[in-house]
Amino acid sequence: MTSPVPAEHDLTATFGALADPTRRAILARLSRGDASVLEIAEPFDMSQPAISKHLKVLERAGLIERGRDAQRRPCRLEPGRLKQASDWLGTYRQFWEASYDRLDDYLQELQAKEKKSVRKKTRNHRGTR
Amino acid sequence: MSEKKLEIIAEPGKTSFSTRRVVDAPRSLVFECFTKCEHLKRWIGPRSLTMVSCETDLRVGGRYRQVFQTPNGEVAFSGEFREVTPPSRVVRTFIFEPMPDAEALETLELMEANGQTTITTTTVHKTVENRDGHVNSGVDKGMAEGYTRLDELLASLMQPR
User: Fold this and answer.
1) ipTM score here?
2) Is B154 exposed, middle or buried (0-12, 13-18, 19+ CB in 10 A)?
């Protein structure tokens, strides 16, 4: 359930893109520096078209940028989107951590009340016998 | 790792993100806390945020709306229930009213074990859903094995090169 913070329209796409292990490995590679598709594909047991597909998802999610150079089209991590995702996550986390902390207290309160009323009922029950 | 920690996670094959949290209570009670206004008012949001209005028509097709008082005025969320299965599951649409185009589909799942309840929420953005044709994809899969902690991942990627 969501927080009262404008969930950026595209952030779910960003998180969806991050859910795939290959794409995370690509991002980890790019966090060490820009790379061409060939360079990115090298450590993977995967065809270049398959890697290109992953790159497209990452690009659409705003997580990477592709260079204009038609030959090489180097990929670069897009720190703006990562920061946006990270900031949003921070606010979301704060909202829900605060809520769940309150829920912990509230559940305790409710259960204490329940126990008390059960004890009371049991006592009354005994009393009428 | 503390089990009371809120986990925000990305799961393989889902165009969504999930959260997971454990509380010390039976799930029937947790379900009530998530679905009844008298309870919601007591815990949703930080203490600085007051819920000034709450409506919940808990049935398929029924609507809900919550209004909060913020320092910048009132803010409302609303949506429609799509699935209501007490005490384990609720699926609903979610709209942050200032951004009515950004509708999301949210699933709440409650699992009980040893007197504790694990609360899992999954949020799917409808535009993503439409674009990728992932209607309800993965929503029924339950807990995936290989999830990723999004916050840890983002932190590692954002380290200076």
Assistant:
1) 0.81
2) buried
